[in-house]
Amino acid sequence: MTDEDVQTALRVAADYLSSAHLRGSLGLSVLLIHAGGDGDYILVHTWIEGYMSDLAIFTGPVGDATHLRPGRAGLAPCVWVAAVLAYERDAVTRHVLDSQGSVDERLVAWRGDVLDWRARSGDRRRNGPGATPTRC
Asked: For labelling, which of 34, 40, 66, 89 has a CA lying 20 to 30 Å from the CA of 76?
């Protein structure tokens, strides 16, 4: 994953999140960059009102971030990325919803609870870098 890939992912996420308030976003989001064996993926997962979440998946050919497009209807994360999203769900529940303290204190705790793990994706061309989470 190059710095250019990360910058592209951040631009895609920013574009998508620019209208997130229309979908009830609470302003808490996670960006996942996944180098899959069949292509590259950017997932933007944001928490919305009513204890719900919104997930957008963008896909593109391997190593060509300029061709990222919204994923097809019904596309769901692979098992590796789903594990990262489950961790994120648990982290927001633990630190934001179930925690005591001010909102600022809870958000600092949530931002500090970062999964230091690289999912095994079977991506031989990049030695299986997996999903890289970034909180937005």
From this structure: 66
CB atoms within 10 A of CB 23: 14
Residue bearing tokens 């593109």? 60
The predicted pLDDT at position 134 comes to 56
Token output for 23: 């979908």
Q: Please name the residue that has the structure tokens 């963008």.
A: 58
Take residue 97 and report the two structure tokens written for it: 């919803």
Provide the whole-model pTM.
0.81
Distance between CA atoms of 16 and 86, rounded to whole angstroms? 22
Smallest Cα–Cα separation from 42: which of 30, 25, 26, 27?
30
- How many angstroms separate the most distant Cα atoms in the chain? 45
